[in-house]
Specification:
Strand order of the largest sheet: 1-5-4-6
Helix content: 25-40%
Bound molecules: zinc ion
Largest sheet: 4 strands, antiparallel
Oligomer: single chain
Structural class: alpha+beta
Length: about 120
């Protein structure tokens, strides 16, 4: 395992990500293990880049702005970002996505992120 704090993101089919989110709320062991795995090891907050230690922060699911199909982008956010209002967080994510994908514009529903564990 890497000893560095780096931003780790993973892609998942959107419907599968939503299924896992729902299942984890019901305590499904497989889904809980999936989100625990997202939080495992060192990482970085997707929103502010803060370093995260093992099991720190919360998993978040956002629609991948770089995908043509509905794809989920799964990362972590720190506790501080998790406590932001969704408007502030959405604003930060829009800025971030514009930096990641030049020419990207907010489509309806595209910046309604922050489903999180
Ligand atoms: Zn953060």
């Amino acid at each position: 395992m890497s000893d560095e704090h780096e931003l780790k993101l993973l892609n998942l089919d959107w419907h599968e990500a939503m299924r896992l989110d729902r299942a984890s709320k019901k305590g499904d062991p497989e889904a809980l293990a999936f989100f625990a795995d997202v939080r495992s090891g060192k990482g970085q907050c997707l929103i502010c880049g803060a370093n995260l230690e093992d099991d720190e922060g919360v998993a978040m699911i956002v629609p991948d702005p770089g995908a043509s199909e509905l794809l989920a982008l799964i990362g972590r956010q720190c506790v501080e970002c998790n406590s932001l209002t969704w408007q502030v967080r959405a604003h930060k994510l829009i800025k971030l996505f514009k930096a990641m994908y030049p020419g990207w514009h907010v489509a309806r529903g595209s910046a309604r992120p922050a489903i999180r564990r």
